[in-house]
Amino acid sequence: MNSFISETATIATDVKIGRFCIVEDGAILESGVSIEDYSMIGANTKIGKGTRIGTYTKVGESVVIGQSCSFTSFCEIRDNCQLGDRVIMGSRGTLSAGTVVEDDVVMKYAFVVTDTPDLSKNNEKSVGRLKKGSKFGASVVIMPAVTVGENSEIGACSQVRKDVPDNEVWFGMPAKFYRPTR
């Protein structure tokens, strides 16, 4: 198998771990989890039942991932993120440290939640929140401290610079309101 699995990790008996993976101290992998080749699971991270972690994906420390989630290849979920159930993330997606993603969120290819430091606030980093049922097209960038409302949709190649209310469709650079969701 050629993977490194910490002796202090808790792994259900039916978990599948690919080649050249790293599972660090205190990680918890629940039943039905699948970790594909060349992936890394950080210390004290919990991955819920039936979740799939794609090839070359890095999950940081102290991350909580819900049940039945799916992450394709080359994703990065940085430290202290909290993800709900049934979250889907396309390849090359990045969630900055501390990002909160609620249940049933779909993020397509090359999605990024940024955490650029605020120079006017002593380099304090603020992160985003993606509320339940929100959907994002490919190559969307969510700027720091932005919240995207429940069941809202963001079009491909958009940059979201301000909060999006519940049940709205936005797109563009910068993203602007288009219409209510249907």
TrEMBL record:
GO molecular function, one term: acyltransferase activity
Keyword Acyltransferase: yes
Keyword terms of this UniProt record: Acyltransferase, Transferase
InterPro entries for this protein: Hexapep, Trans_hexapeptide_repeat, Trimer_LpxA-like_sf
Leader peptide range in chain numbering: none
Chain ranges passing through the membrane: none
Coiled-coil region list: none
Presence of keyword Zinc: no
Protein origin, superkingdom: Bacteria
Family: Belongs to the transferase hexapeptide repeat family.
Protein name: UDP-3-O-[3-hydroxymyristoyl] glucosamine N-acyltransferase
Naturally occurring in which organism (per UniProt): Simiduia aestuariiviva
